[in-house]
Design a protein that fits this description.
Helix content: over 70%
Number of strands: 0
Radius of gyration: 23 Å
Number of helices: 10
Order of helices and strands: HHHHHHHHHH
Oligomer: single chain
Shape: elongated
């Protein structure tokens, strides 16, 4: 005869449920740190992609120093991310199988980066091809952020996570816009396929930023709306009109490549600051929920003891 199962303790179940809630909050707080590190890597690789596009489109005559600096920044972000991953992959942090697979994809892409950089340095690829190669590389970290946000099921954080995801989408669309527009200006010719791709990326940004505005709090939304009235935003709009109205194969003034890179960079930096702001709000929400859950655990313990 099998031994009778030990009688379930209601108090133990209640306290375990409260403890699991606290663990979930702590795990999300750790994920927020991971998203921050992934974002820094994306930011560095985006800048390297943009500088590389001008370097190649100009035949290696321009942006060599900017590219070197961007590579150093991306390498430092890579090291920081790997250090954090070593902590986040501990069993206590609850990594999932999809998350581990995505991390493997990211690391595999980073392993291919030295070969890509060497090919660029020897100018053995076209500028547009380099944009595509870097975009495939960046897609891995972006997808990892999407998974982390989608896997979070914490009440109170859902709106923040939706706002964060669409900010990341918009940021990457601007990064690709910067790189492709730089190719057009630096080459001195309006290639129709790239021109149409830039227009598509602008539309994608607008859609993502509308969702961000719908889910962000009032302060962040007002802050972003004010950013659209700055001289940097006006300068980018003028350059966008210059590209959108150019006839296919028409000549472009290559001297505008620097202004384009700077204007797009200002937009990317502005979006990046909003990403950091949302991550900061997410951390604060996690801390507030942790404190509430710990207080609820103490209250439950006292109630059950009574």
């Amino acid at each position: 005869m099998p031994e009778p199962a030990e009688e379930l303790s209601v108090s133990q179940l209640v306290l375990q449920a409260k403890q699991l809630e606290i663990d979930a909050v702590r795990q999300l707080a750790g994920r927020a740190e991971l998203v921050d590190a992934i974002g820094h890597l994306i930011h560095g690789l985006q800048r390297e992609r943009g500088a590389t596009s001008i370097f190649l489109a100009s035949g290696g005559q321009r942006f060599a120093d900017v590219r070197e600096q961007a590579m150093a920044e991306a390498d430092e972000a890579d090291r920081q991310l790997r250090r954090l991953l070593a902590l986040q992959l501990q069993p206590a942090q609850g990594p999932t199988a999809p998350m581990l697979s995505l991390i493997a994809w990211v690391l595999l892409g980073l392993q291919s980066l030295p070969a890509l950089r060497a090919q660029v340095q020897r100018r053995q690829m076209e500028a547009a091809d380099s944009v595509a190669a870097y975009s495939r590389l960046i897609a891995g970290p972006v997808e990892l952020i999407f998974h982390i946000a989608d896997a979070a099921r914490l009440p109170g954080a859902s709106r923040l996570l939706v706002a964060l995801l669409h900010l990341v989408q918009a940021n990457e669309a601007v990064g690709q816009e910067r790189a492709l527009g730089a190719v057009l200006f630096a080459s001195g010719r309006c290639a129709e396929a790239l021109q149409q791709r830039v227009m598509h990326l602008i539309d994608a940004q607008d859609r993502s930023l509308q969702v961000f505005a719908d889910f962000a709090d009032e302060a962040l939304r007002a802050d972003w709306e004010a950013q659209q009235l700055t001289p940097d935003a006006a300068r980018l709009e003028r350059l966008r009109r210059m590209l959108s109205t150019a006839r296919p194969e028409a000549p472009l003034d290559s001297r505008h490549s620097q202004a384009w890179f700077d204007a797009c960079s200002a937009r990317i930096d502005s979006l990046w600051q909003r990403v950091l702001a949302v991550i900061g709000q997410l951390r604060a929400e996690c801390e507030a929920q942790r404190l509430r859950a710990e207080q609820a655990l103490q209250d439950s313990e006292g109630l059950l003891q009574g």
